[in-house]
Amino acid sequence: MTQPLLSIKNLTIDYIGENTDFRAVDNVSFDVAAGEIFGLAGESGCGKSTIAFAISRLHKPPALIRSGQILLEGRDVLDLDIQALRSFRWREVAMVFQSAMNSLNPVLRVEAQFYDVLRTHQGMNRKQARERTAEMLRLVDIQPDRMSDYPHQFSGGMRQRIVIAICLALNPKIVVMDEPTTALDVVVQREILQRVNELRKKLGFSVLFITHDLGLMVQVCDRIGIMLEGKLVEQNTAQEIYASPQHDYTKKLWASFPSLHGSKTAEAFAS
Ligand code: ADP
Ligand code: MG
User: Fold this and answer.
1) Pairing of strands 37-41, 223-228
2) 6-255 to CATH, choices 1.20.1730.10, 3.40.50.720, 3.40.50.300, 3.90.550.10
3) Distance (Å, whole) CA 85 – CA 157
4) What is the dihedral angle through the alpha carbons of 73, 75, 77, 78, rounded to the nearest 10 degrees?
5) Is-contact 103 38, C-beta < 8 A?
6) The dihedral sign for the CA sequence 76, 37, 161, 254
7) Residue identifier of the C-alpha nearest atom 21 of ligand 1
8) 49 in contact with ligand 1, CB cutoff 6 A
9) Is the pTM higher than 0.85?
10) Handedness of CA 131, 133, 135, 138 (dihedral sign)
11) How many A from CA of 21 to the centre of ligand 1?
């Protein structure tokens, strides 16, 4: 076995309360291989975002990591100092959040938002940044000449693709996508995830994809972990999670998606 790209080991995270602490993540372990899409599913409140924030060290009090390790290529993210963290974010781990399409600055042209990231993290000048911006926009099917437009001139789905393109511009090793498309309609969601899937095959990054929509997840992920109340209760290949769920909770999750657990999903696996 080669070393996994990301290895979460026995991660436990509490939210510290005045009287009692709340255990949001309870002894969770999983690996994400290089180039793999790993999905984390489970209903709202089960601890998915808490894990996502911890991976990029964006968690803040009252969240407290009690124990465990978050290893990226063998290096513990939890040991990084401020300086190391700055280059770690974006360059190694990029985050796409639920409200990502609204995370673009409305008063700046798209070009300027790419430039901001490319100058800060890679010291690019305007000309270099413009070339890289054109290349990245092409990757997500947006005409490069639209880089001088403002965010409001794009549809929600296009804005989301722009955010993804910015995230990928620094060649991160892994992209953490926390419910990246829930604000979009189902067709657009699917298109975007298919695009991300193609891009990771081409560019080789890994994805940690978080959603409560198991039906969508099973179509794009290689492996899936199912979370329940802070615990990872089952993990397996997407195919097995679909075809022979082991844990009662996973079965229950499937039962709540009757229309998705049908021929369409089976077709997705046949291809
Ligand atoms: P998910 O992303 O799966 O919906 P979260 O990781 O956001 O779940 O939250 C996990 C649990 O932690 C939830 O029960 C939530 O109420 C609790 N939680 C989240 N943020 C805080 C906070 N700042 N303070 C206290 N509890 C929190
Ligand atoms: Mg969440």
Assistant:
1) parallel
2) 3.40.50.300
3) 30
4) 150
5) no
6) negative
7) 15
8) yes
9) yes
10) negative
11) 12
